[in-house]
């Protein structure tokens, strides 16, 4: 744990050192730069004009003009209203000129929030470009004063196609991450601090800022919404239990199945492997819907169990409350176990294929040496097979755990319209015993339009996944394990 803490601290320290170096470089450029460097703070192309970099000057001037026009004609329509998120509701008013009822010039809280956020991102990017541009023109000044050759625009283009081609390739992906990942995450965070729900749906109604009220509610705040705290603890607990079992049962099961199928004692291994892979070939949502129907209260499995007397036997020993059916997917406990078992059936074949490829690359000399030394198959599995598997597939295992925290398909498709909670406290907060945080979030948004609480839950899910991923990866990359398996 100490090493993990040191590793995380080193990563954070490195980030802040790089950030400090950036700001220090900007400060030096402003303080020691000539008049044209300082003028670049107002006119981005000034420094390039002084150094006869006219194409760059035009590009930076055009970029600055674009930011100014964006601010005047777009951002100023929304950002001034960001503090209140709007004050005018949508209403129809009579227009004496047209003699018709028309909508007034109303505010739309969500649009104000979204476009204000987008404006902030654009302005932040513009500030970074301004600072970097100032540092670049200061660098040109130093090169000019020392008599060094200053690249022409054509030479710079050749550089960005050659030795700096990685920057060219990453430009569009970075923009995509900012627009399609960063902005939605920031929007999610902002909504969590508002009262955006079914009673505050723009444009007919407006929503506004409420501070940490939603998080207080989520963590057990008092009042009429106190059940959210009760539900959050139970849903979070089941989410972590599910992620743990769903990840390691399929992981270990896939390795064991791969070992059995690759054993020389196994007959017709290709046939068995094909049968298991069929579950991958069939779309997952089709398999899950079929299994849900099989194990429904009126499904074929319940019919068979009742005919052979299993239902009555379970009733007699107290495992089910009625002798008519087994609540495979409709009662707490039963549903939790069945969901994990069904996930094993779906997930093990996929892990088997991964494990087969990895096991084929285990150094044969290690296995032979272990056998010569008298190691039993179980000892070989524990001392050689599993450490090698964890070394190679460790990052994928972390990814699987995070994926299972957000495994919407299995839970939703197996329990939707089948499972109904009888716990009134859970029902009051629109949750059930088998919900994961992500399915609870989905239900809050799609069925109840409770965007404020869904956003708060989304932030908690993000924090859990981020913290676990950082700790797990930091643990895996510490030390030098490459030589062990060479």
Number of strands: 2
As a percent range, the share of helical residues equals: 55-70%
Q: What's the CATH H-level homologous superfamily of the largest domain? A: MetI-like
**Which CATH C-level class of the largest domain is it?**
Mainly Alpha
The proportion of residues in beta strands is under 5%
User: How is the main sheet built?
Assistant: 2 strands, antiparallel
The CATH architecture of the largest domain comes to Orthogonal Bundle
Q: If you had to describe this structure to a student in words, what would you say it looks like?
A:
- By secondary structure, the protein is mainly alpha-helical.
- Helix content is 67%, strand content 2%.
- Strands 1-2 form a two-stranded antiparallel ribbon.
- Helix 9 (227-261) runs antiparallel to helix 16 (377-405).
- The longest helix is centred in the N-terminal third of the chain and has 37 residues, at 109-145.
- The chain is flat and about 90 Å long.
């Amino acid at each position: 744990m100490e090493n993990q803490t040191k590793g995380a601290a080193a990563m954070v320290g490195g980030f802040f050192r790089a950030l400090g170096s950036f700001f220090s470089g900007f400060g030096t450029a402003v303080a020691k730069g000539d008049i044209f460097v300082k003028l670049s703070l107002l006119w981005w192309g000034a420094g390039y004009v002084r150094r006869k970099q006219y194409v760059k000057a035009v590009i930076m001037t055009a970029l600055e003009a674009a930011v100014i026009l964006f601010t005047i004609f777009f951002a100023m329509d929304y950002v001034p209203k960001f503090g209140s998120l709007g004050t005018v509701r949508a209403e129809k008013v009579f227009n004496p000129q047209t003699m018709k009822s028309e909508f007034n010039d109303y505010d739309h809280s969500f649009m104000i929030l979204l476009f204000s956020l987008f404006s902030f991102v654009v302005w932040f990017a513009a500030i970074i470009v301004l600072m970097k541009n100032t540092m670049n023109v200061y660098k040109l000044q130093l090169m000019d004063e020392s008599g060094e050759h200053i690249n022409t625009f054509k030479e710079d283009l050749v550089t960005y196609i050659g030795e700096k081609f990685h920057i060219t390739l990453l430009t569009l992906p970075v923009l995509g991450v900012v627009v399609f990942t960063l902005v939605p995450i920031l929007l999610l965070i902002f909504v969590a601090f508002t009262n955006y729900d079914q009673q505050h749906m723009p444009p007919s109604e407006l929503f506004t800022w409420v501070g940490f009220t939603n998080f207080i509610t989520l963590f057990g705040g008092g009042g009429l919404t106190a059940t959210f705290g009760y539900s959050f603890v139970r849903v979070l607990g089941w989410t972590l239990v599910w992620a743990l079992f769903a990840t390691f049962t399929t992981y270990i099961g896939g390795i064991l199945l791969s070992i059995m199928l690759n054993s020389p004692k196994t007959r017709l291994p290709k046939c068995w492997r094909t049968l298991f892979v069929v579950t991958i070939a069939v779309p997952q949502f089709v398999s899950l819907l079929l299994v849900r129907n099989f194990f429904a209260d009126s499904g074929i499995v319940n019919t068979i169990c009742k005919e052979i007397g299993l239902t009555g036997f379970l009733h007699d020993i107290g495992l089910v409350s009625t002798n008519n059916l087994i609540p495979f997917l409709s009662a707490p406990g039963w549903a939790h176990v069945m969901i994990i078992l069904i996930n094993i059936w779906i997930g093990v074949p996929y892990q088997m294929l991964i494990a087969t490829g990895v096991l084929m690359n285990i150094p044969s000399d290690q296995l032979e040496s272990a056998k010569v030394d008298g190691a039993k198959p179980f000892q070989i599995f524990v001392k050689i097979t599993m450490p090698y598997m964890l070394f190679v597939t460790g990052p994928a295992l972390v990814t699987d755990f995070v994926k299972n925290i957000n495994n919407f398909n299995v839970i939703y498709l197996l329990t939707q319209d089948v499972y109904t909670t009888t716990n009134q406290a859970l029902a009051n907060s629109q949750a059930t015993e088998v919900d994961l945080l992500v399915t609870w979030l989905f239900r809050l948004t799609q069925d109840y339009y409770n965007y404020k609480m869904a956003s708060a839950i989304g932030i908690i899910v993000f924090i859990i996944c981020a913290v676990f991923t950082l700790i797990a990866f930091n643990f895996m990359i510490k030390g030098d394990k490459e030589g062990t398996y060479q």
